[in-house]
Design goal:
Chain lengths: 408, 408
């Protein structure tokens, strides 16, 4: 069964908004055993929507739409879908009641545009949106299904989790998607491909092995569909683990910050941060994890030399002699964080993010990372590259990798 | 002239990677006056690629492809495109030389898979990739153009900026896309739509007005194509500004963190942060801006009470009497940041991000923000919602909004 996603919105086609909905939906569907084969982003236009739906149904059985609805959008999507499915719009008092309840909670008056959201197709299934005002619409025709959801990520996620995935799973009983994900580090993508050449050749044809590089680590995803392959999956995963040896960093599909958080929790340890060039990005990643306050005590973003000295006790002579981007400075920063927060572990990062500030000796992309875990301290110099964004991202990823290695 | 983007990669269809390339390309193309009308994401499969290219050319004149190339990908994209354009692959020594130069710099040996990237279509234009190993391929047939780029964002961006956009602009001399973007705050999307109803009705048909809501602010984009409309654009933009009145926060297409940074720079002021529930996200956003070290002195991510007390001088009695999420605590945090960093301005944020930690009196989503600008201090309570991710995001956006209002 093929499933396609269509995301609607002019903002996507001029690049003012990144389409994060598609990846989120794909990930959820894939974990539920459904196969997303195509993603399309189109403009808020009748013709574009009609054609995309028509083309989509030529390939797929189920279309998941997001966006193109909402009070100011003139309901182009709703009207176009009604035309496609040959439906009439009628006013639905239950939808209005749902909107009224939400507006009462927020103490806002309902205006006419919002009230219009209660117009829904007469024959299709209307699913109440409990976290927003645009109802979720479920159309069916000739064995094909189209589900139209709001584009607001929070509302779409609620709809998928609470309504769409449970209904689809119940109805289609699809095969489960089995996967094992391995974080690897210390080898290039092509080096890894050569290293795993024989493994890939002996892999049964139902299995897939995907390389997912990013930020200096490569995730390997071994996958297969159907519980009947569970034993073989186990065997192959063990074979792969052995082959990876020291390249293996972690066996998990979680993001690195979650893996680090779990490791800290499992060891009953706390962590703090001293961030210079990563600029708070590591703190942001760690605190994205619910419950992180159990092990993350805090951090200092020491973007100025005075902050390094006043808050982290970095010595003036260290900065004068070695500079802020040096082994000495980053080690004093890490020790300063341990002292300031009273944590068991600490990460300190200092580097030249760019685009300016580079020198012959320390070009843009030079980053020093120090990790402390109890009595163990590791310091390493990295050279990432010329992109500021990339340097922040790679600093954060490598800081977490180095911390995990330091704790191992 | 219609332009479509096709992004290739299994990782996109299972949601392990968010397709940020499409938004970036769309934004750049739109700013250069080109119209992206369709975005498709497909799997790394011969048939999927062939069909997507065939379908794309039925609608569009130019197709921009990213991904599906690289040493481990078995060059499915390259082979499929050669089939589509009826081309043969030949070994190109210049491409090899380019790869060799880069590998020498990084002190890595070239392996066979990487060497294979020097196989390129015989007749098409090969553009050297100076920041990676996969060459950029430019195919033409029957007045249609297809450009295949690497999927690595840094390499794709380099290719677009340095090679693709200059070549397309030179050749097609398109009309310039004029736009004015206004940040508004303090009114709902539907409220704004009603407020601007008459304005939209009088707007000449060549003009467009888009609503781009996010994080508690709504960006309004007024746009038109072609320099001949510049005078009218000016007139309409002024009319809109007057209508927006106090709802207008800033007139700019930059992200909020850039607007805040520019305002600080223009006023010769510095800023520091005391972040609790936003967890370093504001620091991350501020330091994403190149040159932010000129005004951003640093921040404390005070995720524990002891960090609030030790680093920001928040009083034990304040935490005991009012709690960490209170006007009193957030004001002491902001003052503590001013003292610790010696900055002119400070933002302090403390709230309950969720999913746990909420109470009857202070439910998840309750956030206090304090902003100080020289002698002016403003504190406000917000109630955002139930999503942790959203609470961090809205805390950051509202903190920057409140700071901008505080400085005005």
């Amino acid at each position: 069964m093929n499933i396609e996603i269509i995301t609607i919105g002019d903002e996507l086609l001029i690049g003012q908004v990144v389409d994060t909905n598609s990846a989120w939906i794909s990930s959820k569907m894939s974990n539920a055993g459904f196969d997303v084969t195509y993603i399309t982003s189109i403009k808020d236009r009748k013709e574009a929507i009609y054609n995309a739906v028509e083309d989509g149904f030529e390939r797929a059985d189920i279309l998941l739409l997001t966006g193109g609805n909402g009070p100011t959008k003139d309901d182009i999507t709703k009207n176009t879908l009604c035309k496609f499915f040959d439906e009439e719009l009628i006013f639905d008092n239950e939808v209005l009641k749902n909107i009224e309840t939400q507006f009462k909670e927020k103490k806002i008056e309902i205006n006419e545009l919002t009230r219009n959201q209660a117009y829904v197709p007469q024959k299709s299934t209307v699913i109440q949106n409990r976290v927003g005002t645009a109802p979720i619409l479920w159309f069916e025709k000739d064995g094909k299904i189209l589900i139209s959801m709001p584009g607001v990520p929070f509302e779409m996620r609620w709809a998928m989790n609470e309504e769409i995935i449970p209904r689809l799973t119940k109805r289609f009983q699809t095969k489960r998607f089995l996967k094992e994900v391995f974080y690897t580090h210390g080898i290039t993508e092509s080096g890894l491909a050569i290293h795993l050449n024989n493994f890939e050749e002996q892999l049964p044809s139902e299995f897939g092995l995907a390389y997912l590089p990013g930020g200096g680590v490569i995730r390997l995803r071994l996958s297969v569909k159907g519980d009947e392959h569970a034993d073989e999956m186990n065997k192959q995963a063990n074979k792969l683990k052995t082959l990876l040896g020291d390249y293996l960093l972690a066996e998990s599909d979680d993001p690195l910050q979650q893996i680090l958080g779990n490791t800290l929790k499992d060891n009953g340890m706390t962590i703090s941060l001293a961030e210079s060039c990563s600029g708070g990005y590591i703190a942001h990643l760690l605190t994205n994890i619910a419950g992180s306050s159990a092990y993350f005590l805090g951090g200092v973003v020491s973007y100025s030399n005075s902050a390094k000295m006043n808050l982290l006790n970095v010595k003036q002579t260290t900065l004068d002699t070695h500079g802020a981007v040096s082994q000495q400075a980053v080690e004093e920063m890490a020790k300063g964080a341990i002292d300031a927060f009273g944590s068991d572990c600490a990460i300190a990062v200092s580097g030249i993010a760019g685009p300016d500030g580079g020198t012959e000796e320390k070009p843009v992309g030079t980053v020093w990372i120090c990790t402390i875990c109890k009595n163990k301290m590791v310091s390493r110099e990295y050279s990432f590259g010329k992109s500021r964004e990339n340097n922040k991202r790679r600093s954060a990823v490598m800081a977490m990798v180095q911390m995990l290695r330091c704790m191992a």
